[in-house]
Hints:
With about 80 residues, the protein is mainly α. It has helices at about 1-20, 30-75.
Amino acid sequence: MVKFLLYLLVLPLVIYAIDSINFTNIFKKNKIVQARIFYILLIFGLSYLVCNFLYDFLCKCDKIFHSKMRRNRWKRYL
């Protein structure tokens, strides 16, 4: 569920960021369909990478935070 919410957050951000790049000089003339397919694949690929990075980062931070909480809990009893 968290990953799905991350996708919903990241996808519009990636679309907004990719929209600022001028791709017209990269593709051949009259190759509009191929350019759009590339644009869509680039958006989904970047969204996947960013979402997985954020998810892994949040999981690692959660593990670090909980391990510190456990250590501090034991220090109280010593």
